[in-house]
Specification:
GO molecular function: sigma factor antagonist activity
Protein name: DUF4974 domain-containing protein
Shape: globular
Largest sheet: 15 strands, mixed
Helix content: 25-40%
Number of domains: 3
Oligomer: single chain
CATH architecture of the largest domain: Sandwich
Radius of gyration: 22 Å
CATH class of the largest domain: Mainly Beta
Organism: Flagellimonas olearia
Number of strands: 18
CATH topology of the largest domain: Jelly Rolls
Structural class: alpha+beta
Keywords: Membrane, Transmembrane, Transmembrane helix
Pfam families: FecR, FecR_C
Order of helices and strands: HHHHHHHEEEEEEEEEEEEEEHEEHEE
């Protein structure tokens, strides 16, 4: 008999990323039961999808590492067999190796609206319940991100390394621009909306064309049909009416958020402050003074308004 209370506790720990190797091994033994009512009733639909997504990803990444280039199709391993193989390794000296994250790989889930700084200087504003996976971008000729949910991207231009967002069958490719993607697993449509620059959208077989500023696209996952339309800037501004968790972002990026929210200009007296990184939460009801105090507190700086209150100068203490 499964101890439901204990299993639910482990599932929550797994989703939060603070599970031990032994506990993760226990969960892997129950992988093939996650569609059964006894297990599925412990989680919401969204949480169940996230658990299976994470386990699928862990299993196939570790198998791919061991295979070192061999074609998995030739081996004809099923996912269930692969999971069983990994479970059998629990307790051996290989356990730690098999459950380590790949070098530079990050997986981020937004339990609240969250601004994430990417390794190349780009940023992603994640809607609640969304998730992204990405690597370091260093050892590749492209910058690839995998998205489940809804996010607004601001991409640093780099003609030598295209920025690619994968959402199921859809691939969105840019060099440097800002755009929104909405791709929830349980919804039938994937939508892409461009705020600035140019974005190429395609699936595995064809390109749907290049979208420019204020253009959008809706892709029907069932029929494969595509509709080109104008886009709304509603998501671009949604952060202004919600709490926002800032995840390892620079002072420059945080200052830009404050400028947009309060229609002021922020200048930095010391350039080295621009690249200082920190993490905090901007609450929706906080005043500009309160946000500036938070910004400066974490970065050993101070701020001053000009005579008319339209410009803020930030300098080192």
């Amino acid at each position: 008999m499964i101890n439901k209370s204990y299993l639910k506790k482990l599932l929550k720990k797994y989703l939060n990323g603070d599970i031990t190797d032994e506990e993760q091994g226990f969960l892997m033994e129950y992988y093939d039961l996650f569609d059964d009512k006894e297990i599925s009733e412990l989680l919401s639909d969204e949480e169940r999808e996230r658990v299976k997504h994470k386990m699928n990803k862990a299993i196939w990444e570790k198998i791919s590492t061991v295979e070192k280039g061999k074609t998995l199709a030739k081996r004809r391993w099923s996912l269930k067999i692969a999971a069983a193989v990994i479970v059998l390794m629990i307790g051996s000296s290989l356990t730690l190796y098999f459950f380590m994250d790949l070098p530079g790989q990050k997986e981020i889930f937004a339990s609240e609206q969250r601004l994430v700084a990417l390794p190349d200087g780009s940023s992603v504003l994640l809607s609640v319940g969304s998730e992204i996976d990405y690597g370091s971008f260093e050892d590749s000729d492209k910058r690839e991100v995998y998205l489940n949910g809804e996010a607004f991207f601001k991409v640093e231009r780099n003609p030598q390394k295209p920025f690619i967002v994968h959402t199921g069958k859809i691939k969105t490719t840019v060099l440097g621009t800002s755009f929104r993607i909405k791709a929830w697993p349980l919804e039938k449509d994937i939508s892409v909306d461009v705020s600035t620059g140019l974005v190429d959208v395609s699936d595995q077989e064809r390109s749907f064309g290049v979208l420019k500023r204020n253009e959008g696209l809706v892709y029907d996952k069932n029929s494969g049909e595509v509709e080109i339309k104008g886009h709304s800037d509603e998501f671009d501004k949604s952060w202004q009416t919600q709490d926002l968790f800032l995840d390892n972002i620079t002072m420059k990026e945080a200052a830009s958020l404050i400028e947009n929210r309060f229609h002021v200009k922020i200048e930095f007296k010391d350039e080295e402050l621009l690249t200082k990184r920190f993490s905090t939460t901007f609450l929706k009801g906080e005043s500009m003074d309160e946000l500036l105090k938070i910004l400066c507190h974490f970065n050993e700086a101070e701020f001053h308004f000009d005579g008319e209150g339209n410009t803020v100068t930030i300098s080192k203490l």
